[in-house]
Write a structure and sequence with these properties.
Helices cover about 40% and strands about 15% of the residues. It is α/β, with parallel strands linked by helices and about 475 residues long. The chain has 2 domains: about 260 residues, Type I PLP-dependent aspartate aminotransferase-like (Major domain) (Aspartate Aminotransferase, domain 2, 3-Layer(aba) Sandwich), CATH 3.40.640.10; about 110 residues, Alpha-Beta Complex (Aspartate Aminotransferase, domain 1), CATH 3.90.1150. It is globular. The N and C termini lie far apart (about 75 Å).
Amino acid sequence: MTDAASLEFTPRDMRRMGEAVMGRVVDHLATIGEQPVRGDMDAADLCRAMREPAPELGSTLEPLLDSLFEEWIPRSFNTASPGYLAFVPGGGVFPGALADLIASGVNRYTGVWPTAPALVQLEANVLEWLREWMQLPPSTRGLFTTGGSMANFAAIVCARERQLGTELRRGAMYLSTETHHSVGKSAKLAGILPDRVRTIAVDGAFRMRIDLLEEAIASDRAAGLVPFLVVSSAGTTNTGAVDPLREIAALCRREGLWHHIDGAYGASFHLCPELRPLLAGLPEADSLTLDPHKGLFIPYGTGAVLVRDGEALRAAHAQTASYMPESRDAEFYDPHQYGPDLSRGFPGLRVWLAFKLYGAARYRAALAEKRTLALDAARRIAALPHVVMDAPPQLSLFAFHLEWPGATPAQQDAATRELLERVTRRGKVFITGCHAGGRFLARVCVLSFRTRKAQMDTCVEHIAEEASAICS
């Protein structure tokens, strides 16, 4: 007789369900390159039909897997595809999926060190690896977050606490016109309202202009405000631009400002010693955002922030209560003292398991390959008729537009948009665009671990054919 109050499955049932799920996932990944790189996104009717009340009685697993893998997952961007060159690709290495199964299966609480000390130490180890790869000092402490947005938020809170104290309304912060929109949102959430956020213009390479930054800081000081934070970019989302990090760091030291680098996209390239000159000045940051779910190919939901003065990160977040397990040994990392979450997942396990299975050398080779592929593709695309390369790759992202004699800017923008749609509609590669430098640009971002030379050859071929058809 069924026990209506029990939520347990038998070991046999759990194995059967686990094998069913794993079989679907493996079959999906085995054919990922053959699947459309962008699903049918005309899904409004589907979404309306999906609305339903909560089920009163349970279902078997197979019909649910059928709906997921045959109806719903295909109606989405195929971000795991080797041809996904849109936005900033994620990829999602398989060890990350295994780590999530382990983390959810054992369901250990990792918010406080005494509750799972060995597991928290694994996460601390990974944060220390990131610190070393970014060449930040041993005083650095960090935190895994859900992504770059929350990492930027944590860094802005640190800067606000350290630089302003209670004088929030006097504080002024600075970013460029190309800075990711999450920075402005994070500033607002941190109490720095839009009228205290200064947007600095960029140069021809889409990098923050130092001269205008200096002028803005001086102007705010003269007005009685307190300049306290500059947010620079180590690889912008639009064009992949790397701001002059070293010069900004020197200016911030001279003026007494906190320097935060948003490296959600680009900081991971610092793992490769030969590519570090492209990110010169990154180790001088007061805080740094990086997204393992981008440049380290980990599944989505894995961001990180590193803060040079780890005590600033702890001071901004540390709290306790009488019911909390006490951490008596200050030697060990305690996650809840460095971030806003008490109950949290175990994102560090994803990165730890991936690096333990692959090794850092294999990761460095994969990252270096992505830059090489981008350089080669950009060179070939720039040589095509009617293509103007607006932003050659500083890392692994480049942007361009279509142009022909007599065309107006509006016609060029429309043609570039049409190029994106035509290329993507062919189903092998997915590219997206952006507004930068006063025009609409097509952009290609090479960052998925599955993207290899064959996909980039296809990308160049399809762009060449469709650009010729449009401009003729």
